[in-house]
Amino acid sequence: MTEIEDRPAGRTRRAAKAPTRGKGLKVKRVYTTAGVHPYDEVTWERRDVVMTNWRDGSINFEQRGVEFPAEWSINATNIVTTKYFRGAVGTPQRETSLRQLIDRVVLTYGAAGREHGYFASEGDAEVFEHELTWMLLHQVFSFNSPVWFNVGTSAPQQVSACFILAVDDTMDSILNWYREEGLIFKGGSGAGLNLSRIRSSKELLSSGGTASGPVSFMRGADASAGTIKSGGATRRAAKMVVLDIDHPDIEEFVETKAREEDKIRALRDAGYDMDLGGKDITSVQYQNANNSVRVSDEFMRAVEDGTDFGLRGRMDGSVIETVDAKELFRKVTKAAWECADPGIQYDDTINDWHTNPETGRINASNPCSEYMSLDNSSCNLASLNLMKFLKDDGTFDARTFVKAVEVVITAMDISICFADFPTDPIGETTRAYRQLGIGYANLGALLMATGHAYDSRGGQTLAAAITSLMTGTAYRRSAELAGIVGAYDGFARNADAHARVMRKHAAANDAIRPVGADDADVLRVATAQWQECLEIGGEFGWRNAQASVLAPTGTIGFMMDCDTTGIEPDFSLVKYKKLVGGGSMQIVNQTVPRALKSLGYQDEQVEAIVEFIAEHGHVVDAPSLRPEHYEVFDCAMGERAISPMGHVRMMAAVQPFISGAISKTVNMPETATVEDVENIYFQGWKLGLKALAIYRDNCKVGQPLSDAKAKKATAPVEAEAAPVTTTSHPVRRRLPKKRQSMTTSFSVAGAEGYMTAGMYEDGSLGEVFLKLGKQGSTLAGVMDAFSIGISIALQHGVPLETYIQKFTNMRFEPAGMTDDPDIRIAQSVMDYIFRRLALDHLPVDTRATLGIFSAEERAAQVAGSYGSASTAEVVEAEEVDVEALRGSVPTETETKSVAQEKVTPEGPKSVKEAHSSAELLELVTGTATDAPLCMTCGTKMRPAGSCYVCEGCGSTSGCS
């Protein structure tokens, strides 16, 4: 798309002066047509955006008459309008059209490119603006959120989403750390840092006292992060805290969040609101940061060999304690198994791929672990939508992809020329090293559409080839820019190291062995790009110290209407789609028909398979679908979930072609063991990853908490049983022939049943009968026998409290949301039944000792301690009558959800209300997803890299 015109002969790699006119980029048109503005090539329409909280129906946001292309989805319209349009709603200054938003950004980039000598002529600058506009308008790529927040506004022109800070072993530095994090959070970004320079609690101060240690200072930073809403309430603060494995306080650091998780469980069981964003979660510490341990090759080899490892003092590096390496590694993985923290970062691998070692080491990462660079630096991100490069014949358009990368990386570098930064040290480092983070989204959709299984050699090879092509092109363009506007300031002192890393990337590209014709074609183009990169860079150097990362792409992924985010596979085969004019519908992922056709299925077969997926949520036993093709449709969740090592293998395939790292959490089933976590972390080191984090399903209460899945089941606490009056032998106290009884209908995660409780004259419980399952079924028989056993025991004097102590918190499927306002979530049918019996038949004081309260009692507790409680916290998803809705037309707009209608051979039937693909997956498959509720609109979020993103409003739990 662009080429160098009149490259000056003999230009040295150290040249940094802006060139005179005529020695800039000559830009060619690829997407646009001369004489036609990109805006004139699309059909525009006016839409109303009304965002509501589904739990209480309140309106969170309203703007009517916004202008978007007709091809943009309702979801993308909502997210861009609410997140990125600037100006107060209802004022003339408020943006009302996507044209205004794109112009605000693109024209700022174009003006800066002209000013700093990037273009050969004014005509080239105009073509650059048109190409950039076309790509944004047609969702080919997107800049990261801070660009849309800030560029072209009166606010500071902060364009970076990711920051790395530094802290030294002084009080001034520690207090400055708190201040700098606050400024970064305020600007809508996230920050990470390494605390390993701070003396441990086992070392002395110059005054003779004992140092506090880094963990103690984490408390103040955590409280600050919990208070500040990023970007003026755009999203919560995101941060990363790293500690080296040889720090003497490493065990305290590793176990910190696991201990806090125990507190969360205890408070939850006592009736406090410990959901993510709940008002009581703030009573526990360290919940606003991701923690990671930085391990060395020396340590991992000690683990492998079963030898000792030395923990070193911070002042002189001497060994002050020796520990068993395997035992310490077990503590790291056990804590991760318990609460998903800490993640792991592989220090020697990270620094072996470092282009600027003469300037300093890489000590930390941003909160999502994809950006790794010098202390006090930042990274500007942008992501390409890979599905936009899939041609009609099912092959990847590598040559157009190259042209797109050229434009995007050029724009990203231009942004550093005018960008503002939250602190002077960050600004100085970023301008001197110009770190960029080009990446992509929709990899999972691309692989499925081309008939590749995510966890397959073919899928991994194609992903590696595309990633290599992206980074090779980015660095080649960076070298060309160095020939025009100069290499980055820190290049001269790091020239040899930078060139060495470029050769490592190129060698990794040469080591790829293509599986099919498509990845072979992409690989040929990638090889050519790396050859040019090395040639041009050898002459001029490079403009950017780093070029690529793989970010979560949460909010911007929805802006581009991507089916999958970052490097992730598809979340599920069923999707939740919002409709124009309000309402929603269930659809099968549109990538599925394309994949089936690429695999050779006929239209009639495709239609039958899609209908089967709509009904069952998976492809197992789908009509005419061959079993060997099942793996193509494996997803992150559902019947055929991709194995944890499948995710690790994909990360390992693309890591050698990324300047930074990969934002991704490896999801593990709840049944995974500590040994499984050990294996994942160990294999990540062996396979050359830079960072890795795991999340074991349902391991957290206060972080990724599901409203449709039971919380982590702790071992039942066997409280001391109430005193029982005994005789020489049990005496049965029979119920009268005529007695009062109470029948309760219930539903646990969609499993319906009935419970009848018979009582004595004094109102005490004497019998229980349970109906669950069809008459004559094994389950019905087991429940009948269980009921008889419990009833006889009650009549023989066994206290009801004893059963409640034994059976509450018992965990097995079905588990999840109930239709009982007093018991919002049950960990099993048994858990629900005995909690309900406790509420109906035990006095408040007795129930209080067991941690069982009604909704009214919980609200009263919260009101007494924290003020009035929101009624929204006890509102549950209700059964919705589809027939009643059929005769009315929704009057609310885009995000006002209506009940889903599930079509079966017997006809339509109503199911529980869904408000996102995560909730829809639960309804269709009968399984639950472990994810937090959005703090803005209340819908269930879904994973995006190592963060979570809301499909309804675009809010994220991290810095994507």
How far is the first residue's CA from the last residue's CA?
28 Å
Largest sheet: 10 strands, mixed
E-strand count: 30
Q: Supply Rg.
A: 29 Å
Task: Give me the secondary-structure category.
Answer: alpha+beta
Q: Oligomeric status of the shown chains?
A: single chain
Mean pLDDT: 84
Percent of residues in β-strands: 15-25%
Shape: globular
Q: Class of the domain at 162-364, according to the CATH hierarchy?
A: Alpha Beta
What are the low-pLDDT stretches, counting only 5+ consecutive residues below 50? 3-22, 230-235, 702-728, 865-911
What fraction, in percent, of the residue positions are helical? 25-40%
What would your notes on this structure say?
There is one protein chain. The relative contact order is 0.11. The N terminus is likely disordered. Helix 5 links the parallel strand 6 and strand 7. The strands form ten sheets. Strands 5, 6, 7, 9, 10, 13, 16, 17, 20 and 21 form a ten-stranded mixed β-sheet that branches. Among the domains are: 203 residues, Anaerobic Ribonucleotide-triphosphate Reductase Large Chain; 133 residues, no CATH class. It has 960 residues and is α+β, with helices and mostly antiparallel strands. The chain starts with a strand and ends in an 11-residue tail after the last strand. 38% of the residues lie in helices and 16% in strands. Helix 2 runs antiparallel to helix 3 and helix 8 packs parallel to helix 10. The longest helix has 29 residues. Catalyzes the reduction of ribonucleotides to deoxyribonucleotides. May function to provide a pool of deoxyribonucleotide precursors for DNA repair during oxygen limitation and/or for immediate growth after restoration of oxygen. Its EC number is 1.17.4.1. It catalyses: a 2'-deoxyribonucleoside 5'-diphosphate + [thioredoxin]-disulfide + H2O = a ribonucleoside 5'-diphosphate + [thioredoxin]-dithiol.
